Amino acid sequence: MKNFMILIREDAAIMANMSEAEAQAEINEYMAWVEEMAKTDNYISGDPLEPVGRYLKKDTIHSDGPFIESKEAVTGYVLIQAKDIAEAVELAKQCPVYKHNGAVELRPIMKY
Prior knowledge:
Layout: E1 2-11, H1 12-16, H2 20-39, E2 43-48, E3 55-56, E4 61-63, E5 72-82, H3 85-92, E6 103-108
Antiparallel strand pairs: 1-5, 1-6, 2-5, 3-4
């Protein structure tokens, strides 16, 4: 099995304008997705990210937000394991992020 990171990318404005009920419904959808992956031993871990942060270069802070001049932000991550990238893609396709036209970035984790 190989490990993969799924970076969840969502429209920051949509997320910020959700009601508490809408946000809870979204959380429930993510929990159901994770629970399905856990049943097949594909889920390793994951968490949402807070909407604050810093974007840094060597000597400067370029942005006080978690993203630069973009409406799309990385709002969370999920670590999974799969036999290959094709299986990882199938797991990532089930992510609830697509409901709001979000996207995921799927990256194999290098072992050395």
